[in-house]
C-alpha cells in the first residue's frame, strides 16, 4: 500500500486553509476567529461543513497562542497526517481476505502514543481496521504515525461522528461487540470468534455508558498484581491477541 503521509499538520492563513480543503485533505479541526464573517472566512467555513470538520470559534488570543507563524489571518486548521479510510472499506477488506470482520473501536482515546500503539497492535493482530470518534479523541497526527511504527501505512483508520450509532450499523452487518472493563466476565470465558468489534475505552474514564450499553459482552482481563488497571494500548493488545488465539 502506498505511503499516505503528509508533511505538516498545522495550516495557517486563509488561502492555505482553503486550498487544503479544496485539495481534499482530511482536516480534523478548524479554529476560526469568533465573529469574523467576511467572504473568505465564510467560504472556508462552508468547505469545513462539507467535510464535517469540527469548527471551533475562538478569541484572537487563542489563535495567537496556537499560531506558529503569527500570520493566521483568523483561521488555523489541523490536517490529519494520513488519509482516513471508511468503515465500508474495512468490511470490504475482510471480504477480500475471506475472513470474518475484526474491527477495533476506540472510545475517546486522547493520548497519541496510545492510539499509535493500538494501530500497531491492530496490524499485528490482523484486524481489518480501527474506528475512532470525531470528537474528544486524538486524530491521525504525526506523533500517532510515529508511535504506530509504520503500521498506519497498512491499517485503515476511520473517523465517525457517533460511535454508538456506528455499532448499531455494524450489528446489521453481523458483527457483535465486546468491550474491555474491569467489571466484566473473564475474557477466557467468552466466545470471541466470528465477526467482532473490540471496544477500548479512554485512558481515564474507560468505555462510556452509552457505548458500553451497545456491547454484547463485557470482558475483563484477569490480573494478579497490586494495581487494578492497564494502559489502554496494553489492554487492547491483550484482548486483540485473545481474539486471534480463539479465531485460530
Overview of this protein structure:
The strands form 2 sheets. A 6-stranded parallel β-sheet has the order 7-6-5-9-8-10, sandwiched between helices. Strand 6, helix 6 (about 140-145) and strand 7 (about 155-160) form a beta-alpha-beta unit. It has helices at about 15-20, 40-50, 60-65, 85-95, 110-125, 140-145, 165-170, 210-215, 230-245, and strands at about 10, 25-35, 55-60, 75-80, 100-105, 130-135, 155-160, 175-185, 195-200, 215-220. The relative contact order is 0.14. It has about 250 residues and is α/β, with parallel strands linked by helices. The two termini are about 25 Å apart. Helix 1 (about 15-20) runs parallel beside helix 2 (about 40-50) and helix 5 (about 110-125) packs parallel to helix 9. This is 23S rRNA (Guanosine(2251)-2'-O)-methyltransferase RlmB. Belongs to the class IV-like SAM-binding methyltransferase superfamily. RNA methyltransferase TrmH family.
Amino acid at each position: 500500500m502506498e505511503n499516505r503521509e503528509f508533511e505538516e499538520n498545522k495550516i495557517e492563513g486563509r488561502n492555505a486553509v482553503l486550498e487544503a480543503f479544496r485539495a481534499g485533505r482530511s482536516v480534523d479541526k478548524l479554529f476560526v476567529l469568533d465573529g469574523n464573517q467576511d467572504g473568505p472566512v465564510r467560504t472556508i467555513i462552508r468547505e469545513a461543513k462539507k467535510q464535517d470538520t469540527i469548527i471551533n470559534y475562538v478569541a484572537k488570543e487563542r489563535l495567537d497562542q496556537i499560531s506558529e507563524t503569527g500570520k493566521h489571518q483568523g483561521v488555523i486548521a489541523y490536517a490529519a497526517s494520513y488519509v482516513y479510510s471508511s468503515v465500508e472499506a474495512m468490511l470490504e477488506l475482510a471480504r477480500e481476505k475471506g475472513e470474518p470482520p475484526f474491527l477495533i473501536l476506540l472510545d475517546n482515546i486522547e493520548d497519541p502514543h496510545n492510539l499509535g500503539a493500538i494501530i500497531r497492535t491492530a496490524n499485528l493482530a490482523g484486524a481489518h481496521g480501527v474506528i475512532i470518534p470525531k470528537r474528544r479523541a486524538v486524530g491521525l497526527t504525526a506523533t500517532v504515525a510515529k508511535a504506530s511504527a509504520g503500521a498506519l501505512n497498512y491499517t485503515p483508520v476511520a473517523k465517525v461522528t457517533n460511535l454508538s450509532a456506528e455499532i448499531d450499523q455494524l450489528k446489521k452487518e453481523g458483527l457483535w461487540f465486546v468491550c474491555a472493563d474491569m467489571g466484566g466476565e473473564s475474557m477466557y470465558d467468552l466466545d470471541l470468534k466470528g465477526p467482532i468489534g473490540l471496544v477500548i475505552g479512554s485512558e481515564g474514564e474507560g468505555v462510556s455508558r452509552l457505548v458500553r450499553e451497545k456491547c454484547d459482552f463485557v470482558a475483563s482481563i484477569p490480573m494478579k498484581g497490586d494495581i487494578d488497571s492497564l494502559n489502554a494500548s496494553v489492554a487492547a493488545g491483550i484482548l486483540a491477541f485473545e481474539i486471534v488465539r480463539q479465531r485460530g
